[in-house]
Amino acid sequence: MSDSLLSVLPSLALVLGAIAVSSCVWVMIWVRRALRAAQKEIEGLQRELRAFELAAVGVGDQVGKLAQRQRQLAAHQEQQTYQDPNSQPYQHAIRLAHRGASTEELMQVCGLNRGEAELLSLVHHLKKAG
C-alpha cells in the first residue's frame, strides 16, 4: 500500500502544482484588469480636474474684468459728480450734515433752501440711525 501511495504522489503533486499555477495566473489576470480599470478612472478624473482648472481660471479672469469695470464706473461717476456744477453745494452740504451741521447751518453755508436742508438732515439722520 505504501508503494501504491508513493506512485500516486508525483501525479498528485503535478495536479496540485497545476492548480496552484492556474490560480496564480487567474489572480494575475484579475489584478491586471483591476489595474487597467483604476488607470482609466484616474485618467478620467485627471481630465475632469483639468476642465475644472480651466473653468476656475476663466472665472478668475471674469472676476478681474468685473472688478476693473467696477473701478472704471466708480471713477467715471466720481468724475461726473465733480463736473456737475450743481452738485458741489450738495456735496459740501452732505459732508457738513455728516459732521452734524444743523438745518440752519446748511442753509447759511451752502445756500440751500429750508426744504433742501431739512431733507438732507433727515436723510443723514436716517442713515445714522439705520
What features would you describe in this structure?
The protein is mostly helical. The chain folds into two domains: 1-71; 84-130, no CATH class. It has helices at residues 2-83, 87-98, 103-110, 114-129. Helix 2 (87-98) runs antiparallel to helix 3 (103-110) and helix 2 (87-98) crosses helix 4. The termini are far apart. The relative contact order is 0.04. The mean pLDDT is 86.
Task: Give the strand content.
Answer: under 5%
Continuous helix count: 4
Radius of gyration: 43 Å
Task: Tell me the number of strands.
Answer: 0
User: In angstroms, what separates the terminal alpha carbons?
Assistant: 107 Å
**Residues in helix, %:** over 70%
Largest sheet: none
Give a short overview:
This protein has 4 helices and no strands. 91% of the residues lie in helices and 0% in strands. With 130 residues, it is mostly helical.
